[in-house]
Amino acid sequence: MSKSSGLQGWLELRAVKGLGPITYAKLINRFGSPEAIRKASLPELVATGDLSPSLAQALKQPLPEKSHEHIQRELEAVEAGKFSILTLTDPHYPSLLKTIADPPPILYFTGQWLQQDQHALAIVGARKGTHAGRAFTRKLSGDLAALGFTIVSGLARGIDADAHEGALHSSGRTVAILGCGIDLTYPPEHHKLRERIEHTGAVISEFPMGASPQSFHFPQRNRVISGLSLGVIVTEATLKSGSLITARMALEQNREVFAIPGAVTQPLSQGPHHLIQQGAKLVEKPWDIVEEILPMLEPSFRLQVETQHKMGNNQNSTIVLGPEEQEVFDRIPLEPVLLDELITQGSYSSSEVMSILLSLEIKGLIKQIPGLQYVRVGTR
Fold this sequence. Notes:
By secondary structure, the protein is an alpha/beta fold.
């Protein structure tokens, strides 16, 4: 059987102008297949209550030649192995995503979608995150991926990219959701990052091949990010950020919402603080998230996560700091701090502070960044 067998009817139905994912899904649930929908009479279609007479009529009309040509190119691309397609009735279609009100009838993907990806957490945030926010995102993503969670994000610049990078750095799985066709990469500079994601995870889109990254695509993309996940974590965002749209969609989909607090003077903290005021769980460390969703996990995976968590705590406890190291470490926040401040705030000489900072950096607890600044990257 060819790779594209049975897909043509799905693609043809999706090409009908005016047929959105909610109505498409309702028709599939009622009739069972695109072929059965096309064979239904006009009175049968209208009687469902899901279609206007004009849309029911459109379902009975032949598609334009241009649409047929595009569908043929997609089917040829599937046969050539350029990407794969999952339909709503496919047994491999993500089970969590199927539960939302408007699941995409068709998912295009590259890489591999695995059964274990049902244990997914989404991390989203600003495209121009602060250094501290981006560093925290990479650490959080890596820690969650190391516990066995798949990290879902949108391949965007900034926080999204850091979410993917953190998971990859921990040799974990990550999934990117596109706001354009599966044959395109946006932003284009993330082509290499996409290839690394495809090697160990998956890249997914609901948009037809060749679809450009239109602004109205991204709210649609965001519902898939939240729909694939047990919960959504917002790292940094303004009050008008698309990340807050994702959080709202998560609530509508009965998903958990988490937010990372920040400095009250930082505009990118306003979004997470607003979510916390609205009831999102405040997150300071990975276990703040995990303990909230533990009851949702399958018993075997829950045991795995708890075991990994205990092992991680034991490993952290082996990092022993002397009193001087602990005193300096306590004065280094997630926000960058100048070397001069660390010297003037304490009672140690500049050479002593430099030696202590080097020791903390070797132990993986802090990182030096441009401008003779230091930032915390580990927790104790």
